[in-house]
Write a structure and sequence with these properties.
9 strands, ATP binding, ATP-binding, P-loop_NTPase
C-alpha cells in the first residue's frame, strides 16, 4: 500500500514551496494548476526533458499517469499532484453547459476515485495531493477551515476522510509552517508522528516522520 498525504492551505500559504527539498530524480510533479512551481531554479529540476513534470488538469489523464508511473517507473518514489482543486475546477468548467445532478455525481466520483486509487500502489511510493482551503463561519461566529470542493456532493463525502495525514499550510509571523492537528480545521496526523502542533514547512521532513506509519 502506498502512502498518501494531503497538504491543504490558502493560495500563497506555502503548499507548493514545501516540495522544494524533494529529490527531482525520484519525484514526478503533476502541475494541475498549470502555473509552474514557486522556487528559483525549478525549471531545471522539473521539465519534460527530465521526464518528471506534467502540466495537466484532466483528472482521468492524471490517473493514467499515476498508474503508469507506479507500475513502470520503480525509480520514482514520490508523485505530487498540485492541486486537486485544479482538477475539480477544470472538470467543472469543461462541463459547464451540462445541466442536472449527474454532473456533480460524476465530478465527485472522479476526485474520490483518484484519491482512493492512490492507496493501491507499491509500498515504496508516496503520493502527495495539495488542495486549496475555504474557511466557513458557523452561527456562533466560529471559523472552520477545510478543503475547498466543487459542489455539495464532495462536501457530503468529506474528502479529508480519505487521508490519514492532512496538514494545513500557513504563514505565522512571516514563517511558513504546517499545522499538524485540528485547530478549527480538518488538519490531522497519526498519533505520535509529530510532537508539535506546528512544524516547519518541509514535506521531506514530514515524510521522514511518517516512515513508520
Amino acid at each position: 500500500m502506498s502512502k498518501v498525504i494531503c497538504i491543504m492551505g490558502e493560495s500563497g500559504s506555502g503548499k507548493t514551496t514545501s516540495m522544494r527539498n524533494l529529490d527531482p530524480k525520484t519525484t514526478y510533479y503533476i502541475d494541475a494548476d498549470k502555473k509552474g512551481l514557486s522556487w528559483k531554479g525549478w525549471r531545471k529540476q522539473y521539465n519534460k526533458g527530465n521526464k518528471n513534470y506534467l502540466a495537466c488538469d484532466d483528472a482521468n489523464i492524471v490517473r493514467q499517469y499515476i498508474k503508469r508511473i507506479a507500475e513502470a517507473c520503480p525509480g520514482v518514489k514520490v508523485i505530487v499532484v498540485d492541486t486537486v482543486n485544479g482538477l475539480m475546477v477544470a472538470d467543472e468548467m469543461r462541463r459547464s453547459k451540462e445541466k442536472g445532478y449527474d454532473k456533480w455525481v460524476d465530478l465527485a466520483a472522479c476526485v474520490w476515485d483518484l484519491v482512493c486509487e492512490a492507496y493501491t500502489y507499491r509500498d515504496d511510493l508516496t503520493i502527495i495531493f495539495t488542495a486549496h482551503t475555504q474557511t466557513d463561519h458557523d452561527e456562533a461566529g466560529y471559523m472552520f477551515t477545510r478543503i475547498k470542493t466543487s459542489g455539495k456532493k464532495l462536501d457530503k463525502i468529506c474528502l479529508e476522510s480519505k487521508f490519514t495525514t492532512v496538514l494545513l499550510s500557513k504563514c505565522v509571523d512571516g514563517a511558513y509552517k504546517f499545522e499538524t492537528q485540528a485547530n478549527n480545521s480538518t488538519a490531522k496526523s497519526p498519533m505520535g508522528a509529530f510532537d508539535q502542533m506546528e512544524i516547519d514547512n518541509d514535506i521531506v521532513e514530514v515524510m521522514k516522520a511518517l516512515e513508520d506509519y
